[in-house]
Design goal:
Blueprint: E1 3-6, E2 20-27, E3 33-40, H1 47-50, E4 56-64, E5 68-73, H2 74-81, E6 91-95, H3 98-102, E7 115-120, E8 124-130, E9 132-137
Length: about 140
């Protein structure tokens, strides 16, 4: 059964609608997808320990070798998926992903090297299938 598993960042788990603010999204010629903005440290499980007096922490989150991405406005996503839409955290890996299992990825891109990530920002929800991710936080 598909289920979201919270990704532990250096600030801990990211939770609640006001946690991740998005300033920009950029996709480059290699297929990497980069999100940047600020994280509300008050809405993270370890943010108060690590924030060094800052409430808003700049971040850059890059997904490498993206082979699929879906985005949807947050309230529309809740109507689409139902009340269980917000189970998990604001940044999850989706275990036993139905989408990943059904996705016909190209032959030179082994499906077993991909993971299904879900990211909630203040206004949008992103589902991303990628080989990996890297998150940089400016404490």
């Amino acid at each position: 059964m598909e289920r979201p598993v919270a990704i532990e960042t250096c600030l801990g788990e990211l939770r609640f609608r006001d946690c991740i603010f998005l300033d920009s999204v950029r996709q480059d010629e290699r297929g990497d997808l980069t999100f940047s903005g600020e994280i509300n440290a008050d809405l993270t499980s370890k943010g108060r320990e690590n924030r060094q007096g800052k409430k808003w922490i700049p971040y850059t989150l890059t997904f490498q070798r993206v082979c699929a991405c879906f985005s949807c406005e947050l309230d529309t996503y809740e109507n689409l998926v139902g009340n269980g839409a917000f189970a998990g955290s604001d940044f999850d890996v989706m275990e036993n992903s139905r989408w990943l299992k059904a996705l016909p990825v190209r032959k030179d891109f082994p499906k077993e090297s991909c993971r299904h990530y879900r990211l909630f920002t203040y206004d949008m929800v992103y589902h991303i299938i990628a080989a990996s991710y890297q998150m940089e936080v400016n404490l």
